[in-house]
Design brief:
Layout: E1 21-22, E2 40-42, E3 53-60, E4 71-72, E5 77-83, E6 85-90, E7 93-98, E8 102-105, E9 113-116, E10 123-130, E11 135-139, E12 144-149, E13 152-156
Antiparallel strand pairs: 1-2, 2-3, 3-10, 4-11, 5-8, 5-10, 6-7, 6-9, 11-12, 12-13
């Protein structure tokens, strides 16, 4: 959908028309549990064929979390809350933020973060991240890291040994 037959950009779209897909954990066991089954992910950037950065609209239900706490060596991340309230869990503790507020996570800052939905109503947020490669993602609370380079993405234990092939990421 990135270009029309006339080699023009795709027309604007309403994100309500983008099909939601359930968010499924990409993590190897035992870290693949804990994602709320009602969490949805709308890859709106992909609808335009964007390749330099990802743009997603995420709905996180009560009790849900965005990821394991992590930080990126090369990639910046940006989150803007569209509706509701969510809590950022980081080295600094817990910080709630709500509709109209945003937060950024600069590449290379060793401050693991994740979003957690602690209140009784869902939150919807825009998540933007670049697609730097090579990349190294550190998960400070668990025995896992993610490395992506010319060999593709792969999960490693904290000591650098790879997870089995059946537990490797299915994207890339």
């Amino acid at each position: 959908m990135s270009e029309t037959p006339n080699n023009r950009h795709a027309p604007p779209l309403n994100h309500a028309d983008v099909k939601s897909r359930p968010a499924k954990s990409p993590y190897p066991p035992p870290y693949n549990d804990g994602f709320h089954p009602d969490m949805t992910w709308k890859p709106v950037g992909a609808m335009f064929g964007l390749t330099n950065f990802g743009v997603n609209i995420v709905t996180l239900p009560p009790g849900g979390r965005s990821a394991e706490r992590h930080w990126h060596k090369a990639q910046d991340e940006f989150v803007y809350v569209i509706e509701g309230t969510v809590t950022v869990m980081s080295e600094a503790g817990e910080t709630p933020f709500s509709a109209g507020q945003c937060i950024g996570f600069k590449a290379g800052v060793e401050d693991g973060h994740m979003l957690k939905k602690k209140s009784t109503a869902a939150v919807t947020y825009l998540c933007v991240g670049d697609r730097s490669n090579p990349e190294h993602v550190t998960y400070p609370d668990v025995d896992m890291q993610l490395v992506s380079d010319e060999k593709g993405p792969r999960f490693l234990h904290s000591d650098g040994t790879p997870y089995p092939d059946e537990h490797q990421p299915k994207w890339g």
